[in-house]
Specification:
This protein is an alpha+beta fold. The protein contains 2 helices and 5 strands; from the N terminus they run βββββαα. It comes from Silurus meridionalis.
Length: 105
């Protein structure tokens, strides 16, 4: 996987050998605790895929922060109705389980 950063625009590009060019736009960040990121691409000109993330530096974000992030997505004509939150409970245990699994390979 290859990442390229564009310093003149809030954009990140990833290149995965089997997938097409994928741009990521940083729509908002406070540079401290949260970032709102969006990506979309056409896959082999067959179908369109888009992703949106609300990324936090902590495992939980205040509801007001999540709502503000969703408002930014909506202002950019991005559908938030299908967004789901990622559970952040037991992350330490999952990391330990993964480490045990990896060391047993």
């Amino acid at each position: 996987m290859h990442f390229a950063f564009f310093y003149s625009t809030p954009k990140l590009r990833s290149e995965i050998p089997v997938l097409p060019y994928t741009p990521y736009w940083i729509l908002y960040t406070d540079y401290v605790s949260v970032a709102v990121v969006y990506s979309c691409t056409d896959v082999f000109r067959i179908f369109h895929v888009d992703f949106a993330w609300i990324l936090g530096r902590s495992r939980t974000l205040p509801e007001s922060t999540i709502q503000h992030a969703k408002e930014i997505l909506i202002e950019n004509h991005i559908d938030v109705s299908r967004m789901i939150s990622s559970p952040q409970e037991d992350c330490d245990r999952a990391r330990k389980d993964r480490a045990v699994f990896q060391s047993s390979l």
